[in-house]
Amino acid sequence: MKRIVTLLHASVFLILLAAISGNAAMQEDNRNFYRLNQALYDISNFYLDTVNQTELTDKAIAAMVAALDPHSTYIPADQVKEMNEPLVGNFEGIGIEFAIINDTLTVQSVIPGGPSERVGIRSGDKIVSVDGETIAGTSLTIPRVHKYLRGQKGSKVLVGVIRRGEDHMQEFLITRDKIPLNSVDAAYETEDGIHYVKLGRFSASSYREIITALFSVEKVPEGVILDLRGNGGGYLIAALQIANEFLERGNLILYTEGRNAPMMREYANGRGRLQNVPVAVLIDENSASASEIVSGALQDWDRGVIIGRRSFGKGLVQRQFDLLDGSQLRLTVARYHTPSGRVIQSPYKEGEALEYYKAFYDRFASGEYMDKDSISFPDSLKYSTLRLKRTVYGGGGIMPDIFVPADTSYYSPFYRDVLRKGVLVDFVNGYTDRMRETIMESYADSLSFMEQFEVDEALWGEFVAYAASRECKYLQERDSVSADKLSEFIKGLIIRNMYGMNSYFIYMNRSDEEVLRALEILRSHQVYGLSGQDALSDAES
């Protein structure tokens, strides 16, 4: 009996201790909360000058978040819609792609079925006024253009248009509507039945877009090249849906762990239509987050081959908290792990975001982009794939199965200048604006343009002269190494402006080393996970 009473007393003591500890923590939180409120009150009421309380609060919250990990963020209320648009997959506007040429808003292309096409706006049109206000020659900026042309669905905007061949300005009344933001930048089928898909971001519509692209005809692809280079991530659900297409029922796609976040495990449901289709995934140093989830899952299950360079290393789970004024807090609550247990996230110290991003840029200086042997991983970060027991590494990004070094052979001072200053894009925009009708009359389609058009001496000389006018001087003996690559870009950008992104990637991929390696592997059926053996050993050597 005495023992029971003693145990009861001990239990009560532990409960009271836990309660006291919990109360102590709560009391500490309350003290900090009131301290912040008191500081804001004192500043608002007693500071020398009038202060903007909203702006002050925004800065205070942003400073608190900056003391955490590099990926937690605070988004003020007036920026939330703009930040969410690329992931939601649409915005409301008039439905054009534009460029600002000679301080004039020029229509590059019209989105099919969109509001502008419905009223007769054409590629090459110059929008010189909006609702009676002249906008041409007023130091136009992209944010200003968005302000003029975007707006609530159903609202109307009157635009004044100058069209080549017409003597007078024409006016068009456009009713704004929802405009889709596609996350698939390009998708096409090669002559071998291999489908190339370039995914720019993981948005709410990404899975539907990819499935539509791959199954636009009643024929299963012979192989898939999933290009995730430069893809910084997006919605987790989109990554899970896409990975699920390639994996067998019960295959773990990822799991998460965090201090106060319940462990989450996501498995493939076995209904994917690409489970037996060879796949090559292209990644680079700018592939992050959702890109790393997909490539990590396929690599861990030996399901496909990963080609390129080590990915960024962003493996933190953000949860969105909506604040009272419409602002948002995206707070890191957990870490992602690949199916084998690897941590995707690169190392960081709290509150030292600059050092974190500096370490990423230091990869170039260390030679990592040119030589895979410059990357070293300790044995503690060594893992095994789940089928073939190949060695893979954690601790920061996904290391590809086949390393393709970055080609910097054509980098020259001139090359860097024309890209950094936007000279190349501006020149091509002006050229296609001037030559649009001539190109359309001279070439039947994009394929004939690719085969027949050349950047000749006259066009190259015109580009060099334009670059010089923008203080980018071409020196033959120093910069000639970049001439061929810049000529290729000039032709590629003309194709993009005239025939769209699909045609642009078809042309540029003809000389893309990663794409060529992927095609070589898929054509020879040297892909992990389908033959039950390490079929890539010859290709890797």
How would you sum up this structure, described in words?
The chain is of the alpha+beta class and 541 residues long. Helices cover 40% and strands 19% of the residues. The protein is built from 18 helices and 21 strands. The chain has helices at 2-46, 53-66, 80-88, 115-119, 142-149, 206-214, 236-246, 290-300, 353-365, 413-420, 423-442, 446-452, 457-469, 476-479, 483-499, 501-508, 513-523, 537-540, and strands spanning 73-75, 90-93, 96-101, 104-110, 126-130, 133-134, 156-162, 170-175, 177-180, 184-189, 194-199, 223-227, 252-257, 264-267, 279-283, 305-308, 316-322, 328-337, 382-384, 391-393, 402-403. Strands 3, 4, 5, 6, 7 and 8 form a six-stranded antiparallel beta sheet that branches. Strands 10-11-12-15-16-21 form a six-stranded mixed beta sheet, sandwiched between helices. Residues 1-24 form the signal peptide. One of its GO terms (cellular component) is outer membrane-bounded periplasmic space.
SSE topology sketch:
Blueprint: H1 2-46, H2 53-66, E1 73-75, H3 80-88, E2 90-93, E3 96-101, E4 104-110, H4 115-119, E5 126-130, E6 133-134, H5 142-149, E7 156-162, E8 170-175, E9 177-180, E10 184-189, E11 194-199, H6 206-214, E12 223-227, H7 236-246, E13 252-257, E14 264-267, E15 279-283, H8 290-300, E16 305-308, E17 316-322, E18 328-337, H9 353-365, E19 382-384, E20 391-393, E21 402-403, H10 413-420, H11 423-442, H12 446-452, H13 457-469, H14 476-479, H15 483-499, H16 501-508, H17 513-523, H18 537-540
Helix pairs in contact: 7-8, 11-15, 15-16
Protein name: S41 family peptidase
Signal peptide: 1-24
Domain PDZ: 89-139
